[in-house]
Amino acid sequence: MAPDAGEQAPEAAARPVAKADQKPATKPATKPATKPATRPARPAQSADAGRPARPASGARSKPSGPAPSGAGRASRTEPVRQARKPAPAPAQAPRPVQGAHARPASDGAAPAPEGVRLSKVMAERGICSRREADEFIERGWVFVDGKRVSELGIRIDPDARIDLAPEATRTQRQRVTILLHKPVGYVSGQPEPGYAPAVSLIGADNQFDRDTAQRFHPSQLKNLAPAGRLDIDSTGLLVLTQDGRVARQLIGDDSKVEKEYLVRVEGALQPDGLALLNHGLELDGVTLRPAKVEWINDDQLRFQLREGRKRQIRRMCELVGLKVVGLKRVRIGKVKLGDLPLGQWRYLREDESF
């Protein structure tokens, strides 16, 4: 019996085939197409393919029954992907050859430069400071074995002959060295908050030898620096200089210039204290050089040292039971403080040397 006009016949793939010559019921002509025209519906596969056909509408339909045992899977026409070749391993650096033919690593190193820097040789010979040497070299005022040198950093034979041009000699003569009687309360080096530097006392008003020596000029303050320290609570002779040769002579690592101090103390000196002050003490783990220390009255000692470490005399006295209450430096090398008044200064004379 034919179905009513309002019912739809089930699809052919969902009902088993009764007879070989029986045709499946046709779909109503009014059913709209469910698949876009751009993608045609796949035809239903046979039962031998083992997989039910997909309906045109995209909804899945139930298979009509189990697939025959000998049925295989439907074949798909998919592009065959080729296996990627593995990336080549990075090339390894060749290993050094072992054995008699291997070269030592030092063969390729640059050879050490020969000779000694010219500025260092000039400073060691006392010609000038290293800073001044670089200045003279740049100006072409230095001759090595008769040849003019104007290249910084050049190395020479340490025994080579070195001469200065007349311009360099005149420049050195124009550089001044000043002797100051520093009062308590002035710092010898870098200024500290609340305290004035000793160089601030250098001026025309404080010049002690204004009637016999050259007149002071403000240009002489340029590069004028203390050659050695004197504590803020100490007084006495302080040297300030523009001459690198003087600075090296007084404060160089190899300086042997002796300095003399008068030191007023209080307290009880331990039994071997005087011997230890002369030699045997150390500061900050470093043994001090031998000194000359002696009593000059009941509460005053004379110190003669060849080094000038920070607060050295005060710390030495503390190690043997004494406290310093007054310290005055009266001599540096062969130059004495003499009658120079407190707070005044004078030039180092041409007939004086440390």
**Which percent range describes the beta-strand content?**
15-25%
Shape: globular
Distance between the termini: 142 Å
DSSP helix count?
6
Largest sheet, described in full?
A: 9 strands, mixed
Describe the structure.
This protein has 354 residues and is an alpha+beta fold. The chain is 13% helix and 21% strand. It is built from 6 helices and 18 strands. The strands form 5 sheets. Strands 6, 9, 10, 11, 14, 15, 16, 17 and 18 form a 9-stranded mixed sheet that branches. Strands 3-2-5 form a 3-stranded antiparallel sheet. Strands 1-4 form a two-stranded antiparallel sheet. α1 packs across α2. The chain is globular, with a radius of gyration of 52 Å. The N terminus is likely disordered.
Give the key terms.
globular; single chain; 6 helices; three-stranded antiparallel sheet; 13% helix; nine-stranded mixed sheet; alpha+beta; 18 strands; disordered N terminus; 354 residues
Provide the fold topology.
Layout: E1 116-117, H1 118-124, H2 130-138, E2 142-144, E3 147-149, E4 155-156, E5 162-164, H3 166-174, E6 177-182, E7 186-187, E8 196-197, E9 225-226, E10 235-241, H4 244-251, E11 259-267, H5 273-278, E12 282-283, E13 286-287, E14 292-297, E15 300-305, H6 312-319, E16 322-332, E17 335-336, E18 345-347
Parallel strand pairs: 7-8, 10-16
Antiparallel strand pairs: 1-4, 2-3, 2-5, 6-10, 6-18, 9-10, 11-15, 11-16, 12-13, 14-15, 16-17
Helix pairs in contact: 1-2
